[in-house]
Fold this sequence. Notes:
Order of helices and strands: EHEHEHEHEHEHHEHH
CATH class: Alpha Beta
Number of strands: 7
CATH topology: Rossmann fold
Shape: globular
Structural class: alpha/beta
Oligomer: single chain
Number of helices: 9
Amino acid sequence: MKRLCVFCGSNVGxxxxxxxxxxxxxxxxxxxxxxxxxGGGRVGLMGILADEMLxxxxxxxxxxxxxxxxREVGHAGLAQLHVVETMHDRKAKMAHLADGxxxxxGGIGTLEEIFEVWTWAQLGSHRKxxxxxDVNGFFEPLFEFLDRMVEERFLAPRFRQIAIxxxxxxRLIDRFLEYEAPDVARWIDHERT
Length: 193
């Protein structure tokens, strides 16, 4: 596993635990010589994550759409900052560069990004792990809702289980390294019969 894509907030959030979790994630990645792909920003949890990786001499690749780069929110300290035209281009580039995907706390953009790559995994478009770093139960209400989707038969349990959830970055990365992608094509074919 060479690089992991981390989606996270462009704000720091209410609690200092969120910033601490971003630093812990960066420390874990750097210690394991795993590079970071992220949204290229210098603000919020994104900036904290990148700064900590850079302080630890980690490999950091940012991908930012031109509109955000022109608003001067791009991280000027990156050796690799890809400026792309659209948000769609950003997600495609990040997915191409990464060997897996992690969501830290963030807003609707963070959720949209992790849900898109999770959907791609469900459809068999990639075989990369998708996970959530659940900082102090931040994602618990979300997963309660996803469990409701399973109960109501809008989401198959096997697709719900694609997402790896841990509260500790070390355990999350350990599970990523052990990850064996499910045979989604077989599941999809089975659903059609």
